[in-house]
Amino acid sequence: MDARIDDDGRVLTLTTGDATHRFHAIWLRDNAQDDETRAPGNGQRLISLRDIPADTRITDVSVDGRGVTVTFAPEGKDVLFDPGWLSRHAYGSGAGRPRGWIADDLTCWDAGLQDDVPVAPLDELETRGPALKDWIEQVAAYGFGKISGGPVAEGALFRVVDLFGYVRETNYGRLFEVRTEVNPTNLAFTGLGLQAHTDNPYRDPVPTIQVLYCLESSAAGGENMVVDGFAAALRLKDETPDFFDVLANHCARFEYAGEDGVCLTSRRPLIELAPDGELIGVRFNNRSLAAVTDVPFDRMETWYAAYRRLGEIIDDPAMEVTFRLEPGEAFIVDNTRVLHARKAYSGTGTRWLQGCYADKDGLRSLRDAMRRQSQEAAE
């Protein structure tokens, strides 16, 4: 490993094997891990940027078995950095990534995932051991997962949320009922299916996790279906880049005012990108789409053509994974990415699910904490 000072002390260049990373002096000082800069217990900063001199520079660097020691002026402060930490936090390599890129720890999928749906028994997950770690990793990567072997009891879905976070209460309550009875006197009646959609696009922010838990399922049909919205958006981009761009560049509007005292609205694009082009969200719900007014006149027909094509991709059976929930089973979806639907049902019987919302920061927090725990154990 080699470390040298460049640009009159404003840059540290670190070479390890075939990898070379460059770090600005101000970045290194701001990210010092010493006890004067960071609280030992939780890692939070103890100082503000105003406490660091604006003319901070590096005057000396040395490498030994402990790591990389950097001396900062004008403070005259020595800080020890772990080379592995520096490599993991190197920056500047993301330039040139294509618009619509996704994070490395996400996996896009289509109907080919049908036989590999992430699933685990609830009682095993509640031991908070390896089964939970594996399931959480898969749910984070694919954006959805199933749970089996739960009790057939009202409110049991809260045990699913307890695995990783907290219920997000809305105007629908802590939970909502999805109950259907097929008319037994009219055997010709066929229940309508629902197009794959994301829930509550009219909220800002949207609930980022949805849980649906089955309590009764005696009606024929009514299978659940999920579609990877990221895979659908990227397929649209591959087919017609202009369609992808028009849906990402202009906001749609969503609205729900179906009860007294409630008028929920949001203004967000159907395909949401971060400033650096990362694909971070999809909102798709024809029932809640309000009049779109944020698209320029000369782009509106293109916007509608793109909206139509995205819907056709979402409806393509090659994109969907289907499964039937039996009593005591549940599934969880990342509501910023994965669309869900219900197939049509018919005949006699009942279908009763309970649903609730949560937030994926809890799920990601648990995943990252378990990753860190495994890493520390390995070291």
Helix content: 10-25%
Strand percentage lies at 25-35%
CATH architecture label of the largest domain = 4-Layer Sandwich
Low-confidence stretches: 184-190
- Cα-atom Rg, whole angstroms? 25 Å
In CATH, the topology of the largest domain is named: Double-stranded beta-helix
Counting structural domains, the number is: 2
**Would you tell me the structural class of the helices and strands?**
alpha+beta
Average residue-wise pLDDT: 93
Distance between the termini: 20 Å
Task: Describe the 3D structure.
The chain has helices spanning 25-30, 83-88, 122-125, 130-142, 157-162, 229-239, 241-249, 300-315, 360-378; strands at residues 2-6, 11-16, 19-24, 57-64, 67-73, 77-81, 119-121, 144-148, 176-181, 190-191, 194-197, 209-217, 220-221, 224-228, 252-256, 264-268, 271-273, 279-282, 320-323, 330-334, 338-342, 345-346, 350-358. With 379 residues, it is of the alpha+beta class. It has 2 domains: 2-88, NE0471 N-terminal domain-like (2-Layer Sandwich), CATH 3.30.2020; 111-370, Clavaminate synthase-like (Double-stranded beta-helix, 4-Layer Sandwich), CATH 3.60.130. The strands form 7 sheets. A 6-stranded mixed beta sheet has the order 7-8-20-12-23-9. A 4-stranded antiparallel beta sheet has the order 11-21-14-19. A 3-stranded antiparallel beta sheet has the order 1-2-3. A hairpin with a 7-residue loop joins β15 and β16. It is globular and about 80 Å long.
